[in-house]
Amino acid sequence: MAFNLRLCLAFLLLQPLSFSFAAAADKVPLALYYETLCPYSSNFIVNYLANIFKNGLLDIVDLKLVPYGNARLRSNDSISCQHGPYECLLNTVEACAINIWPDVHKHFSFIFCVESLVAEGKYTDWESCFQKTGLVSRLVADCYTSGYGQKLELRYAAETSALEPPHTYVPWVVVDGHPLYEDYEHFETYICEAYKGPLPEACKAGVEQQNKSQKNHALVSFLSSTSTRSASSY
Predict the structure, then answer these.
(1) What's the pTM?
(2) Are 174 and 30 in contact (CB under 8 A)?
(3) Among 36, 125, 198, 207, which is most buried by a count of CB atoms within 10 Å?
(4) With contact defined as beta carbons under 8 Å apart, do 7 and 152 qualify?
């Protein structure tokens, strides 16, 4: 399946758990509105969002995942997905996983596995993620076949359509109630800025890196202006 868009445009695209910093201040709400077969959604999940599970930033984050994206709700409550029926299947499967395993570490491990396969073009092997994560496949199968997964997707449809401002593409990342638009890859910076408690090491490292970049930029600008003045003196 080939995709050549910078972002997955709309047809015309949050909050559990963490660790110790939460005692000092409220966690920062982070919501991701996405669809399972969008390459930019899978890239963000696998190569960006997963980092907060490694660097400790999850400790100050209330993460919510909403797998619906640019799907459209029809008059009979059926759902049409941007990348076809298989995307509707995986959207529902991931919705079921989120509902069955509310622990963010558990459902994200499954979603990360599925989206890694999407990124590799092997998403039809998604059921292998049950064995890889140790989660029980029957629970998701029951959720899907019973129709409960469809009800979950209808809830996500309502939540996505109620976004203000409305989403215009996926991934649509919202930090502390504010959409990041095309700057979503820098979501960690926004989280650190929104957090009111003592900053974790991941934030401190980010600030140091930003200060270093600003100093380097200022030095380059100074040298450039000095060079220009020297040249104009002849």
Answers:
(1) 0.83
(2) yes
(3) 36
(4) no
